[in-house]
Amino acid sequence: xxxxxxxxxxxxxxxxxxxxxxxxxxxxxxxxxxxxxxxxxxxxxxxxxxxxxxxxxxxxxxxxxxxxxxxxxxxxxxxxxxxxxxxxxxxxxxxxxxxxxxxxxxxxxxxxxxxxxxxxxxxxxxxxxxxxxxxxxxxxxxxxxxxxxxxxxxxxxxxxxxxxxxxxxxxxxxxxxxxxxxxxxxxxxxxxxxxxxxxxxxxxxxxxxxxxxxxxxxxxxxxxxxxxxxxxxxxxxxxxxxxxxxxxxxxxxxxxxxxxxxxxxxxxxxxxxxxxxxxxxxxxxxxxxxxxxxxxxxxxxxxxxxxxxxxxxxxxxxxxxxxxxxxxxxxxxxxxxxxxxxxxxxxxxxxxxxxxxxxxxxxxxxxxxxxxxxxxxxxxxxxxxxx
Length: 387
Hints:
By secondary structure, the chain is of the alpha/beta class. The two termini are about 20 Å apart. The chain has 16 helices and 13 strands. It has helices spanning about 10-15, 20-25, 40-45, 65-80, 90-100, 115-120, 125-135, 145-155, 205-215, 240-250, 260-265, 280-290, 300-305, 320-330, 335-350, 355-380; strands at about 1-5, 30-35, 50-55, 85-90, 105-110, 140-145, 165, 190-195, 220-225, 250-255, 270, 295, 310-315. Helices cover about 45% and strands about 15% of the residues. Strand 4 (about 85-90), helix 5 (about 90-100) and strand 5 form a beta-alpha-beta unit. It folds into 2 domains: about 1-170 and about 355-380, Glycogen Phosphorylase B (Rossmann fold, 3-Layer(aba) Sandwich), CATH 3.40.50.2000; about 190-350, Rossmann fold (3-Layer(aba) Sandwich). Strands 3-2-1-4-5-6-7 form a 7-stranded parallel β-sheet, sandwiched between helices. Strands 10-9-8-11-12-13 form a 6-stranded parallel β-sheet, with helices on both faces.
């Protein structure tokens, strides 16, 4: 079966969906990556995947430009001879669902968070919700990464409940992300690490303000940031402001890395004060490496952290609440912090293994493939959905 795997960047596909794509190849499927091009295109090709470039502005809202993007995507899918499209990231989920109408190509979108339109109410929110109804109407299944998002879609009647399912995020490779015997050996300071895009919606303003508060009380605490400045995102942090944060010494910037494990191993705790997530990969990876996590009590984030057991939950958009949670962690005995990390590793092993995600996709695709073969034998449409 020829399968298109589509997202808003080759970076995303390489870092978050490469294991799935390799699993599909091993199962005998023809897998094509479709995304806006970036420097990870060559990395995908080196893994043996064909890549088709898609021109897309991830945060664009110009109606004419977006219509052209939609038509280009439809043409790409129509000409590719695909039987199935697996889609990821909000805009790609929406646009692919719209583009596929009438093409006879099956669709399995993965809702990994609801995007900015569900965080910030506007006229665009109303429009997008209506478009979701149309886009997901013909989807074979709609997979959600947390129950809050699934419940919201069902409450708004955006999807058919019979065709929804739940995944544990994108899963985490438990062998690749595992505790290191040598991690966190220093005694002179504690490190609180933020991993993610440096944008307001990830709670970076609250992280920096909490850092100021905590460092006034506990100067030995070091706050680190690992991740890119996303200058194309509407909730951008200006480079000038970010430079001021770093120059003032309130945070230390580690830059960008394809391998976050050394930074996690060095840290004592990973903090992500995001406003809303699917299931945050950074927290899964940190917990898999037996690191306690501090995050907000919002959809997606609270799925990873059991308050007081493998980390702490704080209020969203509140630097004071985040600072309180960090101070709770800092004041814990070292043995208690290690026990908190151990519980996090066990939770990830039980609930968030990458194997769960891969087996779910393989099972759904096998059901769809079997349905296609049965439909072909009986002369019915190959895109008929199972009930």
